[in-house]
Design goal:
Keywords (chain B): Membrane, Transmembrane, Transmembrane helix
Oligomer: heterodimer
Number of strands of chain B: 0
Radius of gyration of chain A: 24 Å
Distance between the termini of chain A: 42 Å
Helix content of chain B: over 70%
Shape of chain B: elongated
Largest interface: A-B, 45 and 44 residues
Number of domains of chain B: 1
Strand content of chain A: 25-35%
Protein name (chain B): ABC transporter permease
Largest sheet of chain B: none
Organism (chain B): Streptomyces alfalfae
Structural class of chain B: mainly alpha
Radius of gyration of chain B: 22 Å
Shape of chain A: elongated
Number of helices of chain B: 13
Strand content of chain B: under 5%
Number of helices of chain A: 10
Chain lengths: 303, 287
Amino acid sequence: MIEVHELTKRYGATTAVRGLGFRVRPGRVTGFLGPNGAGKSTTLRLILGLNTATSGRVTVDGRPFRDRPRGLRHVGALLDAGDVHGGHSARTHLRVLARGNGIPYARVDDVLAEVGLAEVARRRVGGFSLGMRQRLGIAAALLGDPPVLLFDEPLNGLDPEGVRWVRGLFRRLAAEGRTVFVSSHLMSEMEHTADDLVVIGRGELIAAESLAAFAARAGGGAVTVRTPDAAVLTPSLTAEGASVVPGDGGRLLVSGLDAARVGELALRHHVVLHELTTTTPSLEEAFMELTAADVQYAAGEAR
Amino acid sequence: MTPVAEAAARTSREASPAAQEPRPRFTDLVAAEWLKFRSLRSTAWSLAGAVLAVLAFNAGTAYDTYRYWRENDADGRARFVRDGIALQEAFNGNAMLVMMLAAGAVGALAVAGEHRTGLIRTTFAAVPARRPLLAAKVLVVAAATTVLGAAAAGLSFWLTQTILDGRGVGVPLGHPGAWRLVAASALLAPVSALTGMALGALLRHVGAALVAVFVLLLLLPGVLGDDRRWTAVAGHATPYQAWLRLAEAGEATTRYPWTVAGAWATLALWSLAAAVVAVVAVDRRDL
C-alpha cells in the first residue's frame, strides 16, 4: 500500500507536484497516468525518497521509504532503464544490488531467467537495446521479491511480445497480492492492464478511481445508424433533441439518444435500418478530454 | 546503524511480508561496492596505466643517472647518496603528479560517474541508507588506491635503487628517510582518491570534478608559496606540499619550516575531511 498525502514538490519557482493525495492498494494494478511533464516521475522519486518533498508525506506500507536501511525487499522499482553503468554486465549489475541487500546470488540468476536475459547475463549493459534494459530494470525490481512494485514507463522500447509479457507479469504480481504502480503517458497502454487509475496533470490530481468508474465518468456515447432513408430519419431524431452528424458511407452519428430510442423512432417512421451501433468513447478519448486543459507541452499551441 | 534505527528495522520486519529480511550489515555494502568497483574494466585499466606511468617516470630518471654517470671516485658516490639524490630518484615529482591525478580521477569517477549514468538512483532505491553506502564506497576506494599507491611506490623504490646499484649508489629501504618517502608516496594515492570522491559528491559532474581535482591538488599548492606567512601555512595544509616535506631527506630549508609530524597530520586530516564530505554531501540532495 502506498499512501500519498498532500504531497508538494517545488524546484525553485516551478511546482512539479501540488497537494497530491491518493492511495495505491495491494492486489491491484494501478495505472499512473498523465501527459509528459505532469509530475509522474517526480512523484515516483518522492515515493522512493530519492527526492525530498517540500511538504506533505508519502509512506509505503506505513513508513517513509527512506527510513528503511535496505529497500529491495520492500519496494522494487524501475525508474529509468538507463540508470545503470554501461560497463557492468547484467549479472554484475544485479549482483551488486543483491549483495547490498543480503540477497543470495542464486536469486540473480532466477530473475535474469524470468525476464529472458539469461543468455546475455555476462554481456555488458552498454551494448543492450532499450528493450533489454527495460527487462534488466524489471529484473532488478523483482530481485527482493517485494510487496510493492513501481514502474516508470516500463513499456518503452519493448517489442509486442515484450509488451504482452510485461502486462501478464503485472497481472500476476497483482494477483499475488502485491501493490503494482505503473506510470504511462498513454491510456492505451493501461486500458487492458490496470484495475485502478491515478490521473494527474500539471502536478495536480485529476482522478483516482477504478478504471470502470473513470470510463463511466468519461460521459455518454454516441449511436451510429446506417439507413437508406436518412432524409426521413434525421428530422425525426433532431425533433427528439438529438444532434445528428452525417458520417462516411451514408452513416449518421447520433448523440443525445441511446440506441433503443433511435430504433423506436425508426420503427415509428417506417425507416429501414441497416446498422444500429452504440459506440462508447475510448478511454484514450476520455483521458485526452480530462487532461486537455493540463497538457504542459501541447503541439501547435499559441503562445 | 543506530540502536533506534535497528529497533525500527526489527519492528517493520515483523509487520511486513518481507519477514525473512536479514539484519542489514555494513559488510554487505562494502562487498557490493567492492564488486561494483572491481568489475569495471575502465577502472582496472586506468589504475594499471597509472602504476606503469609512475614506474616509467621514476625508472627513466634513474636510468638517465646510470647512463650519464660521471663520478668515478668513491667520494663522488658518497656525495650522491649523502645529498639524498638516490632517494629523490626513488619517487620524483613527475611520478607524484601522475599518481595524484590518476587516483583523484578514480575517486571522482567512483562518485560522479554514478551521477552521470543515473546509477545513483538505482543504488539509493535499493539501499535508502545513503551514509552507510557512501562510507562503504569510501572504504573500498581508499583501500584499493592504498594498494595501488603501495605497489607504485614500492616497485619504484626497488626498481630505481636496483638501477642505481649499477653505479654502486643505490640505497636500501633501511636508509634514513627511505621508508618515509615510500610511505608518503603510497599514501598520496588514497589521499587524492578521497579528494576526488569529495569533489565528485559535491559537483556531481565528471568533467567539473576532474577540473576541481586538478585545481585543488596541483594548481593551488603551487600558488601558495612561502613568501608570506599565511600562504605558507595554507600551503602546508595541502597534500602536495606535505609530500614534498616528507620526501625531503634532511631538515627543511624554507622560510617557514615545518615538522615531519605536521606533514603527516596534513595527509591524515585532509583524508578525513574529504571522506566526511564524500559521505555527507549527497545525504539530503535530490537525485
